[in-house]
Design goal:
Rossmann fold, alpha+beta, homodimer, about 20% strand, 5-stranded mixed beta sheet, BirA Bifunctional Protein, domain 2
Chain lengths: ~450, ~450
């Protein structure tokens, strides 16, 4: 019996029309990255497990795809661990490699490994797949593509401003209007935790805060109470939920409230410096979001997250922030980092929903040449070579099927032009060219056909 | 203690200069594929094990990277199989997915799965990584990139000719001279096996023949004797090693010898038809190679293999052939296929050795803007946005380090232009532009700077 043709859940095949759309988006992102001086690197799909494990929390370790050791090596399986239910230990005994889980940890590993081959400040971009054994749902896949730009080895509000401008330039180039860049600063969160007399409970605090959207202020208060914050603390917190106006005025209000917290003031000052550069750039939609915390262990300064236009129900389509010392775990200390990331797959869903893909992407071939028999094709072959050399994309129908069948094919692949070369044309030394959109026909001398004829 | 920053054996990081070279080659290949009407598809890195297993022979199954099942599923480990040394069975009990081993089997699976969404004859190309747990050596990696173009659903010597022309066009576009396309035909091999009274031993026969290069005619004879071919058979085989002249005359000699073998005559006739088209194309170096057998189980018609120029010691840089019914295992019968493949990694090694990468690839950024303090940068920021919008790639040095350090950076990243905007320039409303190659300087009004200035 034949095997069923199918692929693992959460993975996808991309047909030509989809590849064209994805390439369009990655080309736009790549072009913008390069305009900001980022250079491309690539890292292997497989990393050593020791490189990845423990870098993404327990959930990350659990969702990582592990690669089974080859050949005899599986004999080293730790069966005691399996029996004891120590599945992580069992896995380690038969697996030394795992699939890339994001692009940031491999980049940190890369920077340390190649520190003598790269020039700091190092601006790199990377557009590659990552894999997570997550439950698939809308906008979430087990194999998906991240587009990351990071700069390591420098601290400067100019870089932060450039990152935000870069988000904006990419959306502009994609004609995507209405995306909002939300920002926050880790030092402000630390200042607030301190202000609430809970500097050691900053994680619990930000986890609760992060849920404001979903559970409202009362929900956040309840969760904080549950985590040992007392009423006095919650009373102090309350006004922080009532900031109004644009980013600048919200920062002013925040400064008044947190005037006694040096950490928070530093974060506010830093955001102001960044905004100073941004006012000369022209970032369209920016909002300050005190609840934005994103993987707090990881980020140390500014934090970004990009929400799609409100009309599209979808999680963030971009994110980033400043992280310091991510390379320390691999032995290189004090390397400051800042990065942003676009989620290609979600971005494509958003563009699709808003009908923003250019119509020209559909045109993957310029001309279908119909086939009236090898004798005619022999005449055409030297010209085909010449025309292809001019950059014309030609699909030559391979056999002399009935005209109707060939025309049907040309229609189905959405060829804008069809070329005929049969008996009549051979007599005259011409090709007949049909404009499939307009239904018009013209005759062109064999030696005169060129790109101009199909414009 | 810090973890060592390293990657699994047989895998590679690619630094910006290497990515630029690899992108150059894939861009050339992609452009040429599209000129022949091939359309891009992509398939997941992970396939179901059942899709891949048993398709590449025992070696393939052994060299496949298997992905461990996630979470609780590893509890289903078949420990009896492990104890019995049935490692394949043990692996199957804890792994349901494997990494793509080539692009052809996933493509066959794709064609069956999407048969109602694609239009036959379907010309697809695919440029993606594949993974094999092979012993790494020069030109052989555990993660490498294949560039495949296949057409399914048609039989036509024109397509075969186009494939060869496509090899040639790619090499032309890469300025690679001296690659040789070697061809053979499966029906000729079948005819010879029959001519030697050993139609059932065609595999042993071709395996021996394939070694002619390494062990010479005597070695081949010995191996065949060992496999039960008698002296009469070997005497009949001998003249086949002595074909001389170009492809056409070799085919003529072969026809005389194998005049009694219908299979062989059919193969010869088919090669002649293909060559008929090729004579109008202009394929540079073509050779008939009776010893070429490449995965015989798989190919059913013409077989291609491309050798690099003689000056480079390296295995084949391209290959392909006609295969029929590869989709049958997934339930779709009688789908004829023909494909060629370029090995990106080997091609890059060959181009590197022959110094064929364009010098312009080194230029990954156009301008480094030196940083004399935020006050100056505030002036520049709106112009930076404008210039980047013009497509100029600008790396803005992030902090006001000493001039020497900044110039060193610009040198190291091989920036062709460096821009200064300090006190003097601010007074005059200009930027100073240094041509790093020629060491010359010029002043340009802020509003006049454009792409022209850096050409």
């Amino acid at each position: 019996m034949a095997q069923k043709a199918s692929i693992p859940k959460g993975t996808r095949d991309f047909l030509p029309a989809e590849v064209a759309k994805r390439s369009y988006v990655t080309d736009v992102i790549r072009t913008q990255f390069e305009r900001y001086g980022f250079l491309p690197i690539q890292t292997p799909a497989m990393e050593k497990s020791s490189t990845l494990k423990g870098k993404y929390g327990d959930e990350g370790d659990r969702l990582m795809f592990n690669i089974l050791n080859s050949g005899e090596k599986v004999k080293k399986a730790d069966l005691d661990a399996l029996e004891d239910g120590a599945l992580g230990q069992f896995t380690s005994s038969i697996s030394e490699k795992a699939l890339r889980y994001d692009l940031t940890v491999p980049f940190a590993r890369f920077v340390v490994q190649h520190q003598n081959e790269i020039n700091f400040p190092f601006k790199r971009y990377q557009i590659q797949s990552v894999w997570r054994a997550d439950r698939p749902q809308r906008g979430r896949f087990q194999e998906f593509t991240q587009c990351d730009a990071d700069v390591v080895g420098a601290v400067s509000p100019l870089l932060e401003a450039e990152c935000m401008q870069l988000f904006d330039d990419v959306f502009d180039a994609l004609s995507l209007k209405g995306a909002t860049i939300r920002i926050n600063h880790r030092a402000i969160l630390a200042g607030i935790a301190n202000y609430l007399d809970a500097p050691d409970r900053i994680v619990a605090f930000t986890v609760a805060l992060d849920k404001l959207d979903k559970i409202g202020p009362e929900g956040v208060f309840n969760e904080l109470r549950h985590n040992g914050f007392d009423d006095a603390a919650l009373k102090r917190l309350s006004p922080l939920f009532d900031l109004t106006g644009d980013v600048v005025s919200q920062l002013n209000q925040l400064e008044e409230i947190l005037i006694s917290q040096p950490d928070a003031l530093e974060g506010i000052a830093h955001l102001r410096q960044t905004l100073g550069f941004l006012s000369s750039f022209k970032v369209s939609q920016l909002s300050f979001d005190l609840t934005l915390a994103r993987g707090l262990h990881y980020y140390t300064g500014i934090i970004f997250e990009v929400a799609p236009p409100e009309s599209v129900a979808m999680g963030s389509i971009g994110a980033g922030g400043r992280y310091d010392d991510l390379t320390a775990v691999f032995g290189l200390k004090d390397v400051h980092g800042l990065g942003i990331s676009f989620g290609l797959d979600r971005l494509c869903i958003v563009l699709e929903e808003l009908n923003l893909f250019p119509a020209t992407l559909k045109q993957a071939v310029d001309v279908v040449v119909l086939h009236f028999g090898d004798a005619y094709m022999h005449d055409l072959v030297p010209f085909l070579a010449k025309w292809r050399n001019m950059g014309i994309r030609i699909n030559c129908y391979p056999t002399a099927h009935k005209l109707k069948k060939q025309m049907q094919f040309a229609n189905q692949i959405q060829a804008p032009w069809v070329m005929f070369y049969g008996n009549d044309e051979q007599q005259k030394g011409v090709v007949s060219l049909k404009n499939m959109g307009e239904g018009t026909n013209s005759e062109i001398k064999l030696e005169d056909f060129s790109k101009k004829c199909i414009n």
